[in-house]
Design goal:
By secondary structure, the chain is an alpha+beta fold. The chain is 45% helix and 17% strand. Helix 5 packs across helix 10 and helix 9 crosses helix 13.
């Protein structure tokens, strides 16, 4: 859904035309996969970070149209709400000192974002859910001025036959609210990681991404509060799943999935056409058929927590990358790169053993682990291979961090960088202080003041220390 569109009104003919193009392109993709017609490049990585525009007093500020015009940065773009923006990286091959370079590039972009925000009497902030967000901010008048978001909203409401969205989250505290539109989704902001893999390793990489989602979300949780209520360690997970719900007779558009991929990555794209109706039927008569325009657009309206994406390199050859969507934005730039290093290292280390891992840990167990870790964070227990009820902290410290270190070393990542970024994960997990835990400790010490909590998080974010070093 990152592509802007010309209209928000569609006829039955538009849906039929899109479905026809989607069917043709699905067969083309099948042929490309059968012919092994994909790029063999691997370890090309990138990321997207969704961030908030906030006032000097920590409240969401819906000025992204003016802000982005003033910033004029090719890697910083709109998001659903006018108080959100998205920062993108340039894809790079992960090797040598590229982790350090990624941090420097992100910091440079972030500093530019902060400088422009200050000129508009605002700030920028990275966090999974802004603590100070209130239901009154989630109105259509605060939607970004782009047709694609209005079309998405209108088509989802139409699929729901006008019924309001109902958000129910049960955790430490409970939330039950209703919403007339998709603006609940704008309260969720993420770090989305992209990892390009050769076709031969794509299934294994996607399956491993599902397996490690649970410990990663435990280590990176940064979204406990919504509307002043303390729900899950990563409340963003159930919030996003319920914010884009097409209704009772439709398969969930945001989900962990139902099974591993068994034989081919094509299984995901076949499920797309078989199980998910077209949501926004934008046909493009000028699009090159070989670029799979409609297939890629449709795939962009299905938000699996781990999903395959098709792209094309400069010479027009397709490549496949895995998008890992489970990590909250923030708490800092260096935390974000550490989170990325943990994921990239784990996938590269475990993908060669993926079939054995999938045999020992069923998809149902991986899914159970994911929601346990989203709810309980670093206090969760998980199933792991032959073991039941393993503390996730023990799993991360004793097995997964050494594996991630091995995986990064196999990519010839600088050893000092490996120690530095994985050391941040190690200290965060050992101390028990991720972003969610720090927020809860701050509230325990200072009381339920979500506006002040946002300000204190922003101040520490700008100081740049990783979250395990934050004081109350």
């Amino acid at each position: 859904m990152g592509q802007e569109i010309d209209t928000t009104r569609f006829s039955r003919h538009d849906f039929d035309a899109f479905a026809k193009c989607l069917s043709v392109e699905t067969e083309q993709l099948k042929q490309l996969i059968n012919e092994q017609g994909f790029s063999d490049d691997e370890h090309i990585v990138g990321f997207e970070i969704e961030a908030w525009l906030v006032s000097e007093t920590g409240m969401p500020t819906p000025i992204n149209h003016t802000y982005l015009a003033e910033l004029n940065h090719p890697l910083v773009v709109h998001e659903l709400a006018a108080f959100n923006i998205e920062l993108n990286s340039v894809p790079v091959r992960l090797t040598s000192n590229m982790l350090r370079n990624m941090q420097q590039d992100l910091q440079h972009t972030w500093d530019s974002c902060r400088e422009v925000a200050k000129r508009l009497s605002a700030n920028v902030m990275m966090t999974g859910i802004l603590p100070s967000i209130e239901t009154r901010h989630l109105r259509l008048e605060h939607m970004s001025r782009l047709n694609r978001y209005r079309a998405l909203n209108e088509q989802i409401i139409k699929s729901r036959e006008g019924k309001p969205f109902e958000l129910k989250i049960e955790g430490h505290q409970h939330i039950h609210v209703t919403q007339k539109d998709v603006m609940l989704e704008s309260a969720c902001t993420s770090l989305q990681l992209h990892l390009q893999m050769p076709l031969a390793r794509a299934c294994d990489a996607l399956n491993v991404s599902s397996i490690v989602s649970a410990p990663i979300v435990a280590a990176t949780a940064n979204s406990p509060f919504l509307f002043g209520r303390d729900c899950w360690a990563e409340t963003r997970i159930p919030l996003f799943e319920q914010a884009i719900d097409l209704g009772e007779n439709h398969k969930q558009r945001v989900s962990f999935g139902e099974d591993y991929v068994h034989e081919s990555i094509m299984e995901c794209f076949q499920e797309n056409i078989d199980c998910y109706p077209v949501l926004v039927p934008i046909t493009d008569s000028d699009a090159e058929e070989t670029r799979l325009h409609h297939l890629r657009f449709h795939n962009g309206t299905i938000w699996r927590w781990n999903r395959p994406l098709i792209g094309f390199n400069g010479s027009g050859k397709p490549h496949l990358r895995i998008e890992h969507r489970v990590i909250a934005a923030g708490p800092t730039v260096v935390d974000s790169i550490a989170n990325a290093a943990f994921y990239f290292g784990l996938v590269n280390a475990l993908a060669d053993d993926a079939k054995s891992l999938c045999h020992q840990l069923s998809f149902a167990q991986a899914k159970y682990n994911f929601y346990q870790c989203a709810q309980h964070g670093l206090k969760a227990n998980v199933n792991w291979l032959a073991q039941a009820a393993v503390p996730v902290t023990t799993l991360i410290l004793e097995e997964l961090l050494p594996a991630a270190k091995q995986g990064l070393a196999k990519m010839d990542v600088d050893s000092d960088d490996i120690d530095h970024y994985l050391g941040i994960i190690q200290q965060r997990v050992a101390s028990g202080q991720n972003g969610a835990d720090w927020q809860r400790r701050w509230v325990d010490a200072h009381g339920i003041d979500m506006q002040q909590l946002s300000c204190q998080m922003m101040r520490r974010q700008y100081e740049g220390k990783p979250v395990h070093q934050w004081e109350l």
